[in-house]
Request: fold
Amino acid sequence: MRKNPQASFNLWITDLLASMVFVFLLILVIHSLALKTEQEKLLREKEKLQHPLTLRQNILEKVQALLNQEGLEAQVLVKEGILRLTEKTIAFPIGQAMPYKEQLENLAKLANVLQSVLPCFSHQPGSEATGEAPPAWCSQKEIPPSTCPSQSRGSLDTILVEGHTDAMPLKPGLMFRDNLSLSASRATTVLRVLKSCRNELDGLSNKRGHPLLAASGYSYLRPIVAEDPNDPRNRRIDIRFLMSFDSPSGMEEP
Reply:
C-alpha cells in the first residue's frame, strides 16, 4: 500500500510543532525557575538591608525610653535614625558651645543611658572606667543593661553627635569664626562632656576598629523651625545612629 505523502507531511508538521511547543514550555519553565531564584535572592538581600534599620529603631526607642525614665525629653526620628534632644534636655546660650550649667546633669543621665545600651551593639564593648574621678556634676548611675539581641555585636557603625545653631550672625569678639565652627564646637563639647562622665564610651568601636562616637557640625543649615531660622530650638544637639550593613553579594566593602 502506498503511503499518502500529504498525510506523512502533516504528521511530520504535527510532530515538529509538538516538539517546538515542548521546547518552548521547557524554556519557559527554566526561565521561571531562574526568575524565582533571583526574586528569592533579592528578597534575602532586602531582608539583610532591612534588618539593621529595624534594629536601629529598636535601639533608638530603647534609649528614648530610658531617658524618659530619667525625666528627660528626647524625640526619635525613625527614618533619619536620629535621637533629638529637646531644648528642655539641653540648650545653649547664644554664641556659646557649652550648654547651660544647670543642664550638665542631663548630659550625665544621657551618658549613663548610652553606656547601658551601646556596648551590646558595638564591636568592642568598651574599656573599663579609668581611675579618674568624674566631674562634680556627673552622677554615675549603673542602669542594668537588657539582654543583648543575638548577632547584635558590631551592628552600629557610627554615632554622630551633631551640633546645630540658629541663623543669627555671630557678634564680633567671639572665639568662633562663624556658625559652622560654633556648631562643630557644640558637638565636640557635648561629646567630650559625655566621655568625661563615662569614659567607657571612649573604648567603643565599630567592626573596622574605628571609634564608635564622633562629632559633626551643620551650622544653621538644618533648622527644625524653618519658618524662623533664629528660633532658639534650632540651637540643638541631634544624635545620629548609623548602622553597619553587610555588603550585597558580589560587592566589597570600601
User: Anything to note?
Assistant: Confidence is low (pLDDT under 50) at residues 247-254. DSSP finds three helices and seven strands in the chain. The chain has one domain: 43-143+151-243.
